[in-house]
Write a structure and sequence with these properties.
Number of strands: 2
Shape: elongated
Helix content: 55-70%
Largest sheet: 2 strands, antiparallel
Distance between the termini: 49 Å
CATH class of the largest domain: Mainly Alpha
């Protein structure tokens, strides 16, 4: 059995976040000691580690709920888990594309050699979105 502090140390998840995950139903409410302290099992530790790794990879809370539900049914085909991961990959690729466009635009406007703010490409472009070369 692990205290909430020990669980936090072992997983790198902060205590308020552990409590939040309990409220969200991602981890089951732990047993309580006679002193009313939370006591977590190895399964709780594994589940929190799963959640932490999933969050590190950028999965949403809803995706994690779905993956956790699937993990409770080892007899099911992994197609559903695969679909969640593939959709997440598509979302990440889309965000990367937007970030690349943003990077190009920021490089372009920050390459200004105007001597005064009145002629500054950064200020002008921020004031008039139509001066941007890319949609970001």
């Amino acid at each position: 059995m692990f205290s909430i502090g020990e669980l936090s140390k072992r997983t790198g998840v902060k205590i308020p976040t552990i409590r939040y995950y309990e409220q969200m139903g991602l981890i089951e409410p732990p047993q309580r000691s006679e002193g009313n302290q939370r006591r977590y099992t190895r399964d709780g530790l594994r589940r929190l580690s799963f959640i932490r790794h999933s969050r590190d990879l950028g999965f949403t809370i809803e995706d994690i709920k779905g993956l956790l539900e699937l993990s409770q049914h080892p007899e099911k085909p992994c197609r559903d888990a695969h679909e969640i991961a593939v959709q997440h990959l598509k979302d990440v690729q889309s965000r990367i594309g937007k970030l690349r466009r943003l990077e190009r635009e920021l490089k372009r406007i920050s390459n200004c050699d105007a001597g005064h703010i009145a002629d500054c490409a950064v200020i002008e472009t921020l004031a008039d979105h139509s001066l941007c070369e890319t949609e970001h």
